[in-house]
Amino acid sequence: MGRVSGAFKAVGRLLAFFVISAVCGALVAGIFMPVAAATWGATNGTVQFFDGLPTELTVTPPARVTQIVAADGSGIATLYSENRTPVNLDQMSPNIKNAIIAIEDYRFYDHGGVDTTGILRAVMANVRGDRQGASTLTQQYVANVLKENSLAQGEDPTVLLNGQKSLGDKLREMKLAIALEKKYSKDDILAGYLNLVFFNTHAYGIQAASQYFFSVDAKDLTLPQAALLAGLVNGPSVYDPTQYPESSVARRNLVLDAMLQHGYISKKDHDAAVATPLQLKINPPHQGCAYATQAQYFCDYVLHQILNDPAYGDTPDARYQNITRNGLTITTTLDPRLQGPAQAQVDATAGANPDKWGTSLVTVQPGTGKVLAMAQNTRMLPGQGLDFVTSYNFNVDKTDANGNDLGGAGGFQPGSSVKPITLTAWLSEGKQTDAIVNAAQRRYPLNHPWRDTCAKVTGAYDDTTVALGTAPDLQNDEPNWYRPMTVREGIYQSINTATFASAAALSDFCDIQRAADALGMRDGAGKNQKLDLSTLGNLLGGMNVSPMTQASAYATFAANGTYCVPWSIATVKDWQGKQLGGQTQQCQPGAIKPDVAKAVTNVLQDVLTKGSGYNIKDDAGKTITLGVPDAAKTGTNQYNSQTWLVGYTKGLATASFFGEALGNPEDHLGRNVMVNGRFWPNIDGAYIAGPQWAYYMQKVLGLYDHGNFDPPPPSLITPGKK
């Protein structure tokens, strides 16, 4: 039986020889004698098929790595579908060029794209029962280009081994290879191949492979390193040195044998390289914002904006392909000089954090709207240094104006940090900061005669009608503030009844809404929803606002009334340097009157010198001051679970947040709690968010304008003054 089986195998091989020889003859005829080949009866159909194949190969630029960088060019993160960094041929070690030619196509510089000698040699080897390919490097390059073109078009091509391809596939590759050699030089083809070929799921092209396996550039590959990588392309999984080191070394040595055989290296160099142990120095690339070298959440915010922007593709999938394949350089507004201190400060604020308190800082530049820093005390992945892991960005809205996801947590209750909105409305009507209001009034019943022209005021405070849905009489934090006082004192001491008295004395309650709109105040849920300040509870911060919105609003005061939309993307360029997009500065001078902004600043300076901000103290109980002109306002929600300090110098506006960032603020009270080893009977905006703001601003304020604020006109300060 064994002899019969052997006989059948021999007959099969002989038949295979004649079939392959016929094909080879057809190929030779198709290449060299297309006219005469028409008389070949046996091969006429094959030749006609060959003649009908295309000769043009569109070489789509291979997928490249996209870089997100800070304003100074320093890296933030990389994104890619294929980790590839193309380099010129002269940036590759001669060892890798020689090794790949020796093992894959030693007649590379002698053939015209298809090696008929190699084909006949492969035929004879296959007849003997030895599997041997005949594809030249040019053919392999063609196969890789076709695959890359399919990927670039969003297709998912099946990657077939040469032996699994149909005759038609092989003939197509051969004809394209012949045409390619007429168009490009051998060195161009070799460089293209080495930049395109797959080495590992983490490494496409020789530069990425060199970095991944050996942590060196392609130009610095040693002989044994180059031989290992050249051997790898034949079977990236079979010869993976991280999984199969013995097979990898055996394959490497086979490459070295081929290099010796074909005269690329001496016997001495061969033997030394064979004796070299496998010495990997794996340098795994990390892509995506979760592996950002700085500003994880800022990176994520930038990425969301680009994925949401039709300027980068008609569909979300097209935009994703653009980002992960086209080697973009996304230059942002981030200032690493601020980002480092911001991240260090938020990490230190809560320290060990079993109760999962959230902390964040975001800085916007007044007069430009540039987002300069964005940090929070969480990480995107476990094992990155903190035990608080979330993908949500504390600093930004949940969605953009069109309802597209921005990755934000949706904002937090700002408490008294929104009281400057009512102050802005007060001053916009020409009233003075030092005018007296009746902060003793605590009751604003259902029928209170609010003067409004744009909307019906809703809500009421009245102990006697709680059963009808009103809130109890207004409360202040302490009992001794129910008395007449100046509007200024009401702000710097953060007196709720003074804010309501100011609102009640306005000529038009709707001026509060107009002030909020001018300051860019929006609901943290996104969709560009305005804060509804016709609801009385919102005068004291009952809605959700993102820290970025707060920082931008306060930046308007610092810029003497110029509101700027916050922006984070300076330019987006493709791999050739062509600009594809970016955001532009959008500022509105006079969004609020300059004199009004100056007067607001004048009042908010008192917050830090004699008001609620005076409680910003270090662990020793000493008040923390910046030593330069600054202004701020604290904020605390009714549960003491979401707290703020939003403040500014002339050149930097920063929102500092501490509190419950992801859950229900009612369920995580900021009372009788331990934070960073210290017990707090209750948390206030000045207690934790305040020092976080002050310590951070101390470190960075000198990098931007920190001069004097412009003084307000006396007519907005003292009643009767002009």
UniProtKB/TrEMBL annotation:
Organism superkingdom: Bacteria
Glycosyl transferase family domain boundaries: 76-259
InterPro entries, A to Z: Beta-lactam/transpept-like, Glyco_trans_51, Glycosyltr_51/Transpeptidase, Lysozyme-like_dom_sf, PBP_transglycosylase, PCN-bd_Tpept
One matching Pfam family: Transpeptidase
Catalytic activity: [GlcNAc-(1->4)-Mur2Ac(oyl-L-Ala-gamma-D-Glu-L-Lys-D-Ala-D-Ala)](n)-di-trans,octa-cis-undecaprenyl diphosphate + beta-D-GlcNAc-(1->4)-Mur2Ac(oyl-L-Ala-gamma-D-Glu-L-Lys-D-Ala-D-Ala)-di-trans,octa-cis-undecaprenyl diphosphate = [GlcNAc-(1->4)-Mur2Ac(oyl-L-Ala-gamma-D-Glu-L-Lys-D-Ala-D-Ala)](n+1)-di-trans,octa-cis-undecaprenyl diphosphate + di-trans,octa-cis-undecaprenyl diphosphate + H(+); Preferential cleavage: (Ac)2-L-Lys-D-Ala-|-D-Ala. Also transpeptidation of peptidyl-alanyl moieties that are N-acyl substituents of D-alanine
Keyword list, A-Z: Carboxypeptidase, Glycosyltransferase, Hydrolase, Multifunctional enzyme, Protease, Transferase
UniProt xrefs under Gene3D superfamilies: Biosynthetic peptidoglycan transglycosylase-like (1.10.3810.10), DD-peptidase/beta-lactamase superfamily (3.40.710.10)
PANTHER family recorded: BINDING PROTEIN TRANSPEPTIDASE, PUTATIVE-RELATED (PTHR32282), PEPTIDOGLYCAN GLYCOSYLTRANSFERASE (PTHR32282:SF33)
Protein name: Transglycosylase domain-containing protein
Organism: Sinomonas cellulolyticus
